[in-house]
UniProtKB/TrEMBL annotation:
Protein's recorded name: BLUF domain-containing protein
Pfam families: BLUF
PROSITE patterns: BLUF
Organism of derivation: Hymenobacter metallicola
Location of the BLUF domain: 59-150
Lineage: Bacteria, Pseudomonadati, Bacteroidota, Cytophagia, Cytophagales
Molecular function GO terms recorded: blue light photoreceptor activity; FAD binding
InterPro entries given in the database record: Acylphosphatase-like_dom_sf (IPR036046), BLUF_domain (IPR007024)
SMART domains xrefs: BLUF
């Protein structure tokens, strides 16, 4: 289907530039996947309907970090993981939880409403504090589809390197831990 407006490349570019300018520095500013779709629309490679359909079928993702109030024992971590896997399986959520020396880094992905409800529960959980959203927004596919909740205990410097690295911040630190490598690959931070 051909969009009736804007129908020329110049009009598409102008419409996208306007939308990005109006939403800059607001919660409505386009995220990485949304920017990609907007670029495809600007180039005339996607119609407005196609772009909206891709957004509707996308997976919502939240990445956060937090600090445990008290370090968790191996048994407490295992119990947390089992509860998370059961809840996530029931709500179609997948992801990865990393723990190190009282610090958490977690990726949640799934239907937006379900991910937001879970994240609100996590933010209210009294076992940790300083819950900071590292990133959120739609993604084209699940990055951790095989895990209702993957888990890894990793060294603190490696967790810090994940939090410090961004999608456009080379060089990527040399990390040997499997879960960290998986996280890097999922975000396109490290070649397979």
């Amino acid at each position: 289907m051909v969009d009736s407006f804007p129908y020329t490349e110049a009009q598409r570019r102008q419409a996208v530039a306007w939308a990005i300018a109006v939403t800059a520095n607001t919660p409505l500013a386009p995220r990485r996947y949304e920017r990609y779709l907007l670029e495809q629309y600007q180039l005339g490679l996607l119609s407005l309907d196609e772009m909206l359909q891709l957004l509707e079928s996308s997976i919502y993702q939240i990445v956060y970090r937090s600090q445990a109030v008290h370090p968790l024992s191996t048994d407490a971590l295992h119990e947390l993981l089992v509860q998370s896997q059961q809840y996530n399986a029931h709500h179609q959520i997948t992801g990865l939880l990393l723990y190190s020396a009282g610090r958490f880094v977690q990726v949640l992905e799934g239907p937006e409403a379900a991910v937001r409800v879970l994240y609100a529960r996590i933010q209210a959980d009294t076992r940790h504090w300083q819950v900071v959203t590292v990133g959120e927004g739609p993604e084209p596919v699940r990055r951790f589809a095989e895990w209702t909740m993957g888990f890894g205990q990793v060294a603190l410097p490696e967790v810090a390197s994940v939090l410090a690295a961004g999608p456009y911040d080379p060089p990527i630190p040399d990390v040997n831990e499997h879960h960290i490598q998986t996280l890097f690959r999922a975000f396109g931070l490290r070649p397979d």
